[in-house]
Amino acid sequence: MSRQSSDPRRVSRRDFLKAGVLGTGALAGLAALQRAASAAGPAPSAANAAAHHDDPMGHGGSGTVGDVDITRFDPMAFASTFDRGRVSITPEGRRLREWDVVAIEKEIEVAPGIWFPAWTYNGQVPGPSFRCEEGEILKVNFTNGTSHAHTIHFHGIHPPSMDGVTPQVMPGESFTYEFEARPFGLHLYHCHTMPLKRHIHKGLYGAFIIDPPGGRAPAREFVMVMNAFDTNFDSANEIYAVNTVGFHYLRHPIPVRVGEPIRVYLVNITEFDPVNSFHLHAGMFRLYRTGTNLDTYEYTDTVTMGQGERHVLEFTLDYPGQYMFHAHQSEFAELGWAGFFEATE
Ligand SMILES: [Cu+2]
């Protein structure tokens, strides 16, 4: 569709933002878009489909109705599921950890009733949260079951030949990545095939956790991958989330206990936007950048991250009740990237 159309329903959200940057201010542009959409009735885009129904935050224009099919992908289960692979001992006495990964094309539900034609690792977006311990030998047997070339590029230290840039793994072909797990920290993996932004944005990414020897202190642990979806393929996102489903943790607060140690493995893979961010309400967290250091941290309630940045957050919630967390770009929050922890005694 033309991005130059004079019909306000056919001007993308991003066009309003660009106009706003040039002139009237981004928030004014977004407000104008919402007014135009209201006046015009339901508009065709996924953003409006998501924005036009009831409103968990109580001011009109945000939220979704109903639920995604959690038998296909359950964000609550995903957040606390770690894929530790298969462990064996090499002839040299080293611990070997192995995973099988298949790239599959699959429709995923990014908000109730809103489907996105994804490319996935093992049928899910984000891909499995791979977890290992520093010093282990890792083996990732990758098979490309899609109709496009793909790879797996892991962050961390390893030989360039195992870096997932070359070789490109063609449809129907396989490649095994083998390298040592180092250094400990929170890393990520994603496809590294051109055009990169499309291959990442389509869903080929996940968290990659290397635990320090002996592990971290006990805590309730959650993976949160900040992602977003361009549902109309205009190179701007309509749905923002942690763990794929917009507003899911707003409709289903994450249950925790008052005072228990909580650890969040926070990854930003958001495509098309220069930064994303995480803000915790009514609490403060210790921020371990990239998780590569156990001693040095910042103490804050907000962190801003470029694409590919990831941090370990540790905190306790000291009172019973619902604690909001969301992107501190208000626009992202209004398009799905918002949730609650619910702390009970
Ligand atoms: Cu790819």
Q: What's the gyration radius in Å?
A: 21 Å
**Widest sheet: strand order?**
11-10-13-18-15-16
Strand content: 35-45%
Largest sheet: 6 strands, mixed
Give the strand tally.
20
> How many helices does DSSP assign?
7
The structure class reads alpha+beta
Oligomer category: single chain
Runs with pLDDT <50, length 5+?
A: 1-11, 16-57
Give every kind of bound small molecule, once each: copper (II) ion
Mean pLDDT: 87
Q: Between the first and last Cα atoms, what is the distance in angstroms? A: 53 Å
What would your notes on this structure say?
With 345 residues, the protein is of the alpha+beta class. Helix content is 15%, strand content 37%. It contains 7 helices and 20 strands. A 6-stranded mixed β-sheet has the order 11-10-13-18-15-16. The radius of gyration is 21 Å and the shape is globular. Residues 1-11 and 16-57 have low confidence and may be disordered. Copper (II) ion (CU) binds at residues 150, 191, 193, 199, 204.
How would you describe this structure in keywords?
five-stranded mixed beta sheet; 37% strand; 20 strands; alpha+beta; binds copper (II) ion; 7 helices; 345 residues
